[in-house]
Structure formats: C-alpha cells, structure tokens
Amino acid sequence: MTVPGADSTLVFICGSALRGQPDHANLAEAEFVGAAQTQPHYRLHAVKNGWHPGIYAVATGGIAIPGELYRLSAAQYEHLLATEPPDMYPATVKLVGGGEAIAILYPRELIERDNEPDISHYGGWATYKAAQAKVE
User: Fold this and answer.
1) How buried is 3 (Cβ within 10 angstroms: 0-12 exposed, 13-18 middle, 19+ buried)?
2) H/E element holding 33?
3) pLDDT tens digit string along 58-106?
4) How far is 104 from 122, CA to CA, in rounded Å?
5) CA-CA distances (angstroms) from residue 39 to 46, 62, 67, 101, 102?
C-alpha cells in the first residue's frame, strides 16, 4: 500500500508478472519482499482466452490466492499499471497475516459477461499455467 508521504507502493502480484512467468520483466527493478497469500475472499479466472488472470473479491466462496509482494517506487508502479491489459484496475487486497497490499483486479461483471473460466480450483495462476503446459 502507498503510505502518505512515502515514495513506494507495496504490490501483491499473483499472475503473469510472478517470478518465472512471462511478464515478470514488467516489475523492472522492483524490490521482492516475499511470498504472500490473500485472505480467502477472492476468485481467480483465466481471462482473454487464458492469456491473463482475473481476480475479484467475493463475500463468500473465495479462495486464498498465492502470490508475491514487491515494493515499487512511484515510477515502477506507474510502469506496472501502464503494462496491464485494458479493464484491469488497482485495489487493496487483504493478506493472510493481517496486512494489505495493492493488487491488480479484473471487473467481475466482465468475467461473468464473457463467461471466463473459473480456475480457482487450481489454487493459483502459476499452478494453472503449469497444468496447461502439460496439456499442450
């Protein structure tokens, strides 16, 4: 999270910018803080034909999504936002252990409208992509 007067933002990454994923370079020189997990209040979908993850908050039936925390400077944060696909937006997510961070979410309305597949049962984006690679 951005703290007033601070020059960095704590960002939760849970998709294609994770270490080992194709968009990790979008984090540039961001500081890796560590592994993290959301509280179980989110759903995970494969959007745009499985090209990108889409997460959104739910009141019930959510999962804890695994990911990574990074500390980004203002310039790094702006760069990350500029590299996100259309319709993605930053929002605060609650983490296991009581903390919060900014994550890039996807509108639930678009997921439902486009009938994007729910991949929450995979437990995370990297696990989903690994399973897809075995199928292909």
Assistant:
1) exposed
2) strand 31-37
3) 999 999 999 999 999 998 999 889 988 889 999 999 999 999 999 999 9
4) 19
5) 20, 9, 12, 12, 13
Q: What is the CB neighbour count within 10 angstroms for residue 10?
A: 21
Architecture of the domain spanning 8-127: Roll (3.10)
Which residue has 């009938």 as its token pair?
115
In residues, how long is the chain?
A: 136
Domain boundaries, the chain: 8-127
Strand-pair partners of 13 = 68
CA distances from 20 to 25, 73, 82, 130 (A): 10, 22, 21, 11
Distance CA(41)–CA(18), nearest Å, equals 20
Judged on CB neighbours under 10 Å (0-12, 13-18, 19+), 63 is buried
Inter-CA distances, 82 with 25, 54, 64, Å = 13, 17, 26
